[in-house]
Amino acid sequence: xxxxxxxxxxxxxxxxxxxxxxxxxxxxxxxxxxxxxxxxxxxxxxxxxxxxxxxxxxxxxxxxxxxxxxxxxxxxxxxxxxxxxxxxxxxxxxxxxxxxxxxxxxxxxxxxxxxxxxxxxxxxxxxxxxxxxxxxxxxxxxxxxxxxxxxxxxxxxxxxxxxxxxxxxxxxxxxxxxxxxxxxxxxxxxxxxxxxxxxxxxxxxxxxxxxxxxxxxxxxxxxxxxxxxxxxxxxxxxxxxxxxxxxxxxxxxxxxxxxxxxxxxxxxxxxxxxxxxxxxxxxxxxxxxxxxxxxxxxxxxxxxxxxxxxxxxxxxxxxxxxxxxxxxxxxxxxxxxxxxxxxxxxxxxxx
Length: 351
Known about the structure:
alpha+beta; 62% helix; 10% strand; CATH 3.30.1890
């Protein structure tokens, strides 16, 4: 019965009781002031040391791009019913969804980007050389003569190994690709470096490389069909010109109109000319449709937003490490004081 009343009184503690308990806690903090001072000071010094070694002054160049993922329009469907195909903006869905994000991170795309020649500080240089010199591996003796070339066939095995290490460094520590909203086609591509110009150049070169890769691969079939049609048009045009000359030559002959056998060759040239004209017209129509289809398939990737100087900082600064250290030390000191106070309160109640 007494324990039940005691629990009821504890559950219905008044505001005065709460203020009284807080006063006792503050009094304990006042009497145990050393942890409140020492812990934040020690943790602040640890944060300072961590900030001196771990802080980064990297700048981030962030681009927002959009990939076209449209389906066939009503006009495309209507033309398809009549056997006319003008292509789509993304045939086969190659760059739909997360596949575009992964495309920016594959090794071939990054290495092709690193071997791009750019204009940096008034000089032509390979992008990989700018990133490689800031890496720890570049200080090793075996990599002392590494010099990247735009033409990969001119590189030796050591340089190829250095290029692979540079790719891993870029993929893990420099490059960030994400799709914030799964319902939209926006993709964020960012690169970070202590030199803001290198971060900007690397981001731009990577986007250009991926875009060129799309034009090279996704439109390969359309370009092949277009080239075949152009060759066929040239061949048929030559035949058409030949038939025009043959028909004109036969018409110039002074043949006896009563001799029908003599007009066989003239009729044959006329038939060949009509066939050539019809075939040439169909090929021209298909050629124009192929050109329209190729234009519809490019470009796939469009830049929506580009970064501007000054670029955004990446990571924590040295003073932020100090603030986190002081905050952690103060929180630990308060927890230990509160834990000790609660332990004393429990011991008092038990007595």
